[in-house]
């Protein structure tokens, strides 16, 4: 049965992996539980910078941030155009443009770092799902084989009982 499982796994893997990796996956699938908690594993490896990037991405990608930032821009323009007699940043708002450029220059890479980490996490999750599906397929195949054996044995028992009943009927006549 072990040999059959190995053949099934090799067939399913279709030699997309190196020999060493393939053997490791086969052993994992056959002998060990393989599912992992991807979120827990990822959280354990997060650095302070990763946590900051995630938090900034969460905030910068929200409607609250967009509305507040639009409010800030409007406030800045009104403040420097109408309220202050001597504007800190008069029209064409060069200081505001500098602030916006700096914000964009810092915000984009931070969001990309967070997205890259999320993509790595998704890759780990996909590999975990594939291994779990593969192991489930192996278990189902094994159950199917055992069920076939049980059905075959049951049919043999039924035939044996029928033969005995027929023999008893003949003796009674």
Protein architecture, described:
The protein is mostly helical and 173 residues long. The protein has one domain. Helices cover 84% and strands 0% of the residues. It contains 6 helices and no strands. The radius of gyration is 34 Å and the shape is rod-shaped. The mean pLDDT is 83.
State the helical fraction. Answer: over 70%
Order of helices and strands: HHHHHH
The biggest beta sheet reads:
none
Distance between the termini: 49 Å
Number of strands: 0
Radius of gyration: 34 Å
Overall 3D geometry?
rod-shaped
Beta strand %: under 5%
The low-confidence parts are none
- Overall SS class: mainly alpha
Mean residue pLDDT? 83
Total domain count: 1
List the helices and strands and how they pair.
Elements: H1 2-13, H2 19-31, H3 38-45, H4 48-60, H5 63-83, H6 94-172
Key words describing this protein structure:
84% helix, 173 residues, mainly alpha, 0% strand
């Amino acid at each position: 049965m072990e040999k059959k499982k190995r053949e099934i796994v090799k067939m399913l893997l279709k030699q997309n992996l190196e020999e060493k990796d393939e053997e490791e996956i086969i052993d994992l699938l056959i002998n060990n539980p393989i599912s992992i908690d991807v979120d827990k594993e990822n959280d354990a490896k997060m650095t302070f910078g990763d946590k900051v990037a995630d938090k900034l991405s969460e905030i910068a990608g929200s409607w609250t941030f967009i509305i507040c930032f639009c409010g800030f821009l409007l406030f800045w323009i009104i403040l420097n155009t109408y309220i202050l007699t001597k504007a800190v940043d008069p029209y064409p708002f060069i200081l505001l443009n500098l602030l916006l450029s700096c914000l964009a220059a810092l915000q984009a890479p931070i969001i990309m770092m967070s997205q890259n980490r999320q993509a790595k996490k998704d890759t780990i999750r996909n590999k975990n799902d594939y291994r779990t599906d593969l192991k489930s397929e192996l278990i189902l195949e094994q159950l199917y084989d055992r069920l076939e054996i049980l059905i075959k044995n049951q049919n043999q028992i039924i035939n044996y009982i029928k033969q005995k009943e027929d023999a008893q009927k003949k003796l009674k006549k």
